[in-house]
Design brief:
Layout (H helix, E strand, L loop, with lengths): L1 H18 L1 H13 L18 H17 L6 H16 L10 H10 L4 H14 L8 H5 L6 H32 L6
Helix pairs in contact: 2-3, 3-4, 3-5, 4-6, 5-6
Length: 185
Amino acid sequence: MRLLIITFIFYASIISFAQENGGLDVLVSNFCKTTDKHNSLEAYHPHIKLSLEQEIEFAIASLDRLLDNPKKFSLDYQFKMSKIHVFLDSVDPDRIPLKFVPTLFKALKIGSAMLTGDVIIIDLLDRIVGDNPGYTMQYLAENNFNNTERLTFIKKWEEAFEHNKEHILKKRYYKNKYYGKKVAN
């Protein structure tokens, strides 16, 4: 009985660890440092159950940290990025807070070693922001990540996001109010 209580307290402290502000930073740091390969993003923190909002924050924070030091030709880097991209592809875009959209634009500017990663980011931004200024697969197919025309389209898209931020929030508010859909701010 005593062992059961000690085990319960131990796991309760681990679960509450993720809910603290610093806990997520530690998880992100451990994810970026590890060389382990798991099937999903959730498998990188098996003893800590995160809510969907925390999982989104974990994925975007990990993406941001990995983009600070991109290693496109490292297999570990590509594997981690692919797990983040797969997770982001499965998330409803209305559940991603707008404060994380600049990180998605950063990912698009830097580009991915794999075409599918950029496709997922473009699709996600198109569903969150809309108003795609003509950024198409043509720019990805050319594989020229320094293309000034491509970067100009991304810059226009960022400006459209800043201009339409209030409209996006209103649209999310109405989806929540009239359709009962869970949305993020």
